[in-house]
Amino acid sequence: MKRRHKLLTKYLIKRIPPLYFTEKEGIEAVAVVKFFSPYLGWRWFVTEFDGKDIFFGYLQHKDELGYFSLKELEKATVFGNIPAVERDLYFEPTPLKTIRQEIIEPKETVDIR
Predict the structure, then answer these.
(1) Where does 11-106 show beta strands of DSSP type E?
(2) % residues pLDDT > 90 (the chain)
(3) For residue 110, is pLDDT > 60?
(4) Quick one: pLDDT at residue 108?
(5) What residues pair up with 46 in beta bridges, in sequence order?
(6) pLDDT of 14 above 70
């Protein structure tokens, strides 16, 4: 099965800072692109890109900053040939700190009284 849209467009490539550009910002860096897997519940938030294959950003499923590959995201499939990773077409640039708070803190403050 073919993906319905590109994971990364030329427009987005121009908007993502190069690798190491935001390294001093840490968790204050702004994610420009969000990828997600509706099958695994994983999310990747891109803050930097080498222009070819390697991203840097926040990996929600590991709760850490790290590197990941465009080629690997594009190749990932489920059920034989269904693309496992999609790009959030409605994502707006957001600081990683805000993203992490929205993902982690609700889990830690659940009150089940």
Answers:
(1) 30-31, 33-36, 43-49, 54-59, 64-69, 77-78, 82-83, 86-87, 94-95
(2) 72
(3) no
(4) 52
(5) 33, 57
(6) yes
pLDDT digits (tens, 9 = 90+) for 61-80: 888 999 999 999 999 999 88
HSE-up (13 A, CA, CB side) for residue 88: 19
Q: Long-range CB contacts (< 8 A, 24+ apart) of 77-84? A: 78/39, 81/1, 82/1, 83/1, 83/2, 83/3, 84/37, 84/39, 84/40
Q: Are the beta carbons of 85 and 74 closer than 8 angstroms?
A: yes
Identify which of 9, 94, 23 has the alpha carbon closest to the alpha carbon of residue 60. 94
Give the pLDDT band (50/70/90) at residue 48: very high
Of the candidates 75, 25, 96, 17, the residue with the CA atom closest to the CA atom of residue 50: 17
d(CA 82, CA 1): 5
Amino acid letter for position 106: P
